[in-house]
Amino acid sequence: MPGATSLIIIPARLASTRLPRKLLLNQTGKTLIQHTYEAALRARRPSGVYVATDHEEIRTAVLGFGGRAIITSPTLQSGTDRVAEAARQLPHADIIVNVQGDEPELAGSSIDLVIRLLEENGDVPMATLATPIRTREQLEDPACVKAVCDARGRAMYFSRSVIPHPRDWEDGLLCAEPPAFLQHVGLYGYRRDFLAQLAQMPPVRLEQIEKLEQLRVLHAGYPILVGLVDEPTRGIDTPEDYRAFVSRARP
Fold first, then answer.
1. Domains: count for the chain
2. pTM, full prediction
3. Helix (H/G/I), strand (E/B), else coil: 146
4. Could you read off the pLDDT of 45-55 as tens digits, one per residue?
């Protein structure tokens, strides 16, 4: 789809369990949502960035730094639902990119890659990213979601477990080329029509077991194209994550 119009929508929920009100934390002098918004602005292909939020406090913060925000229903169950609702108010975009609000160090080039994958592969409704796993600690961490792909770069499965699972372990697997293990990067690009369809799909058993929403797509038989990047993003989920980010962000 050469010439397709694309937009970034950042779902931003005020409530968060492990790190309360994390998107409004501002120990760096900027809120976390502002850092993520500014990271998204570094992408060159999208025509705009919007925050989709359930709370007026986040909307006010976004407008305060000059961003654009859309209020969505507080009853929505997932970030995907929030992005889909906001997208209905933005009918001019062919491709919607879902950037998580707690990804302040996301590279603009990663967003551009997801968009390019959809522009160049018209038969694929959804794209995401993965990056090599190079340590055993990361590989065995259930918070690190793993992906396996077929020869065309389409996802076969995502899991919190080690996949593929070596029958006989060798340390050399961690430095293999092409990479033996891939970490899923939680950045998604959707075609508009498919995003609306996805928001209507009921949860499936695999998704509920793994707590991974993208398995709903594979279960329904739709392909997810996976692009490879060299560096993982670092989402902010815990107080330790945020302290580490603050230390990196300060000059």
1. 1
2. 0.93
3. strand
4. 999 999 999 99
